[in-house]
Specification:
It is built from twelve helices and eight strands. Helix 4 packs parallel to helix 5 (173-181). The protein has an eight-stranded parallel beta sheet with strand order 1-2-3-4-5-6-7-8. By secondary structure, it is of the alpha/beta class. The structure holds zinc ion (ZN).
């Protein structure tokens, strides 16, 4: 009997949660809109398509320099997220989720993949972003040309940190100047690198180059540049808050950190940003790569955050991005 009561209580609470969340709205069949500002469009490589356990950085035990290298992701959990095995599988799954959750995405990476997604999605729901992290990838003239053609609406992910370089490095200045002139918002990777990034695959990566204060010179040189700090400068909270306090145009996204670092830590970080007064400047992002279900996993963190009000959740999942990217919200509802 006790067990039956327990089962009944669980069923009732599941039904209640479902009805309360925007996933299961009774009155409207449409999910409240979501904008994911941080999606990577990449060709699926089956050889590297490993499954992944969210919040896998809950344990970073370290490694011995003379032993095996540390592993980047953890696949050892009850329900790892499955990696897509082909471009088609990934696209079909992404499109289905975007439709069901009423999503718009900002996608950078392979232009062919982005175009294919644009064809498959509803109009305006896939916004192309151009990524550049070093002057060796493209000249400033070619970059400006690319932006002027109108396909790309956003610049990012810019990730000089992986080259051990500051975002204020003069070698990138011409690109940022072009974005400022053309009124193109810019997303810059700052902070996160995972466990042993330097030891595994990014020897030039420097944790210190993720310090949000390194943006100050860039922002001073380009007072009209609209920057959002990808990964919210994790874990450099104090610097992030100070930078945002001094620079009213700076936003952050919570991509990547939201599903890789320990969940409690993620919630403390987001809560602190909101508590410090920046709830209107947090953008939702996934850092989606090869695991289609990562969207639901990551969106769930915001949906289930008991420290956020309904309005604060809507700001993070939609309203803040509409404002930052100057989107037409009526077309995305
Ligand atoms: Zn990044």
């Amino acid at each position: 009997m006790k067990r039956l009561n327990l089962i009944l209580a669980i069923i009732i609470s599941i039904v209640a949660t479902f009805n309360n969340s925007s996933f299961g709205q009774k009155s409207s069949p449409k999910h409240l809109p979501i904008i994911d500002v941080h999606v990577h469009a990449m060709k699926v490589n089956p050889a590297f398509a490993a499954d992944m356990c969210p919040w896998f950085l809950s344990s970073m035990p370290g490694a011995n320099p003379n032993g095996p290298a540390p592993t980047f992701i953890n696949t050892d959990c009850a329900l790892p997220l499955k990696a897509a095995r082909s471009d088609k599988e990934f696209q079909d799954s992404l499109m289905a989720t975007m439709k069901r959750l009423n999503m718009t995405i900002i996608a950078s990476g392979d232009a062919g993949i982005i175009r294919s997604w644009q064809k498959a999605a509803a109009p305006g729901r896939v916004i192309p972003s151009i990524s550049i992290s070093s002057s060796e990838e493209m000249t400033v003239v070619a970059f400006t040309d690319s932006l002027s053609k109108g396909f790309y609406k956003v610049m990012g992910e810019v990730a000089p940190q992986y080259q051990g370089m500051s975002p204020s490095d003069q070698s990138l200045d011409g690109y940022f100047a072009a974005a400022e002139k053309l009124n193109i918002p810019v997303g810059i990777h700052m902070g996160t690198g995972g466990n042993g990034s330097i030891n595994i695959s990014n020897p030039k990566y420097r944790a210190s180059m993720g310090n949000p204060f390194l943006l100050e010179d860039l922002l001073a040189r380009h007072p009209k540049l609209q920057v959002w700090v990808m990964h919210a400068g994790y874990p450099m909270m104090d610097e992030m808050l100070a930078l945002m306090g001094a620079n009213a145009y700076v936003y952050v996204d919570v991509a990547g950190m939201i599903w890789s670092y320990p969940l409690e830590e993620v919630n403390i970080y987001i809560k602190r940003l909101v508590q410090a007064g920046f709830g209107k400047r947090i953008l939702y992002g996934t850092d989606l790569m090869i695991w289609p279900k990562l969207l639901e996993t990551s969106i769930g963190v915001i949906e289930n955050a008991n420290y956020l009000s309904f309005d604060q959740k809507r700001d993070i999942l939609f309203n803040n991005a509409v404002r930052f990217f100057r989107l037409d919200e009526n077309k995305l509802k």
